[in-house]
User: Fold Transcriptional regulator from Nakamurella endophytica.
Amino acid sequence: MHVFDVLADPVRRRVLDLLSAGPASAGTVTAAVVAEFGITQPAVSRQLRVLRDAGFVDVTPDGTRRVYRLRGETLREVDDWLRPYRRFWEPRLDALATEVARGRRDRRAADASAGPRGAADGRNATGAAS
Assistant:
């Protein structure tokens, strides 16, 4: 299965999201995915196997548990493939970040010039009538 076919599935993407926080047991991953997607434990196990077979995760036995962790190599391959296409979205994201920062700055300036809240309606800073 091609790596993008693997990534096309929302359950598998969610498993990768969970494992991005660090290694997790099969039970932990399964509980989260079952709760979120309403699928069965065997269905989650199949998704974990697909991720393992595609090289996205490694599994290590730990007593009676199986611990899954991300494999950076496969994710780097995906990132390398995407690199030439970043020029299509990075400038827009940079522009969005600039606008968000400008909006925050403008709101802070407006709040500072408005003075303490409640002053316009005859209330003091605690909200009591003055």
